[in-house]
Each structure stands twice: as C-alpha cells, then as structure tokens.
C-alpha cells in the first residue's frame, strides 16, 4: 500500500551525494523541487489511479533522485513529492490543487486520475499558470476549452473510435452493440463512436448507458446476445470492464469482436480473466514493451520496483511519456513555468510511446489505436503501421 501521508519526501544516498557534488555557491539554490498532486487512493477511481498513474510518479521521483536529483538547468535538485488522497471526489481534488498551487506554491504539479477530475482542475491550472500534462483524460470538451497550460497526452475519443471502426470495417463486421458509463468519458466516446460509424456500413443494433458503480450488466448483455452482433463495444471503467467480461462469459455472449475499456490494458484484467480467458479481447491500448527500447527499459523498471506489477499498456505509457516531457522541459528551462509551457506546446517530443506533439491541448501525433490480448500480451493490432502483432479477427470462445 502507498502511504497516504500528505508529504512523501523521497531521499536516498544518491540524492545526498548529488547535492554535495554541487558547488558551494549553488547550494542555496539546490533545495528540493516541490512537486504536488492529488491522487485517488480510496474510492472508485483507485483501481485506475493506482495502476496507471501514481506508481509512475513514485518511480520517476526515485529514478531522478537516484541520479542525484532532477536536472534543473544543469543543477541537480532532489524531488519532494507533496501528495494527498483525493478520495475519488471531484471537490476534494479541486481543493487539493487550489492549495498546492495557491497557498503551497509548489514548483510543479502532476495531474490527477480520470476525465472528471482533470475537467474540474484544468481551469485552475490555467489560472495559476502551471503546465499540466494529463495522461488519463479523454475529453473533446477539455480540448475545446483551449486552455494554454493544459495538455492531453492520451489519444482522444475521435481518433480512438475511428481506429476501432476502421478495424471493424476492414474485418467485415456489419453490426455492433454498445454499453457506456453515464459520465463524461462514456458519453463522449459513445458520441464519437456514433459519428465514426456513419457511412461505415456497420449498424448499431443496441446501445445502453449505465450508472457508475453498476453491479449487474447481465440483463443488457443477454439482450445484446439475442441480437447476435458481430461486435460488442463497452466504454467502461476497470471494475465494469471486468464485470462485463465475466457476465458475458456467464450468459454465453461471445461476439467475434469484444472490445471494452478502461482496464482491459491492465495486468489485473489478464490475471482475473486468466490469459486464456482474456485471449482475443480488444480494448484501448497503444504500446507494450516491444514498442521501443525505452518502453522495454521502463516496463522492466516498473515491474521490478513494484514486485511484479506491470504497467498497463495504455495510460501508464502516456504517464511516463508526460514525465519524460516534463523532465526535458525542466532541464532546458528550469522552473520557469511559462517557458516550460511554451516548450511543451511547441516541440515534437520523443518518448517511449513514440512522437508526441500538441495541437492546442491535444496530442495529435499519436494515432488512434486498438490493442488485443494475445498469448498473455496486450498487442497493438491497429492501425497496422504501429502494430506489434496481427489482429485475430475472431475472438475464441470464453475460457
């Protein structure tokens, strides 16, 4: 368990050595870099937050401090993480960031988990002038707000749904059924899917929203099974992704294409469903350890630090890529937040998941992607130019 204390000062012998190696005249400038964030450690957001995001923040701080500290325009300074539990509550999250940026005046901030929290905090980051690299927010509305300090690392609903529909069309699918969680994430992805389906020749035979925290999806899954669609699409959160998969197995609903996210890219999904049970399941994913040498090094370091817990094959990569961008920005521009913002906005960034470049708030360099569980790995299968494996166009029976 992560310690829920307000402050986590990450030190170590390497950080001390790094500080002592600085010229005496610079010691006054070489205090810790205070990096603040709020993160779900309790409540319904915890599963996503504690897989995709906070472990990466801890690993990043540990790695930087082990190398003597964060490079701040040539001066190594230890990272001090100032963090709190947002309790999966938007109001708590907003108050936490108001304090971090307003009264605590931390040097830098890192993003919270999820579309809802980021939607609430984004205007604050802009008001206080803190560059904000958000790795777990999907929202067209966020991009349309045109907040110059706010950057969305993940591919947004439009390119993700276009990639999904392109894959289904190329594979001969003619019909589709969809469930979606009744919040910003679900509603925006459902709307993007409907637009992407126009002119595709694929008919949506049933669609159904559901409330967050749902405990039973079997009635709608039975109804969808009766309509025998070629594809099932679920815009779901991790607990619901697992629930839908388990109950689809129970009711014998096994379309050729079974797509659910968020959470499909998690090691937890493979473990809960078993590798054989997860085989052929599709979802939102954009990378794995085959994507680049940097991705392999990151995957191995994460798995080692967290005792065998793997990063997920979607947002974890975006989180680490955002930290790579922030690290590079601070090395070049120090803690001048306006200069950091301008660097982030105007540069093509080389990261473990490939090039990232922002058009306004949106990462427009990373294409929409689809991944699929194959032999225990979540392989990128679409589009083919970034694929790590070929698509299996017919999901095997649930095991």
Q: Can you offer a commentary on this structure?
A:
- The chain is of the alpha/beta class.
- It has helices at residues 13-20, 46-52, 54-66, 90-103, 115-128, 140-144, 157-170, 184-197, 218-227, 238-251, 267-273, 275-278, 293-305, 315-333, 337-346, and strands spanning 7-9, 33-39, 70-72, 75-77, 79-85, 108-109, 132-134, 150-152, 175-181, 203-210, 231-235, 257-261, 282-283, 349-351, 354-356, 358-359, 362-363, 370-374, 377-382.
- α10 links the parallel β11 (231-235) and β12.
- The longest helix has 19 residues, at 315-333.
- It is globular, with a radius of gyration of 21 Å.
- The chain starts with 6 loop residues before the first strand and ends in a 17-residue tail after the last strand.
- Residues 1-29 have low confidence and may be disordered.
CATH level-4 homologous superfamily of the largest domain:
Response regulator
In terms of DSSP E residues, the strand content is 15-25%
The radius of gyration computed from the alpha-carbon positions, rounded to a whole number of angstroms, is 21 Å
Main beta-sheet strand count, sense and barrel state: 4 strands, mixed
Residue ranges: pLDDT <50 for 5 or more in a row?
A: 1-29
Count structural domains: 2
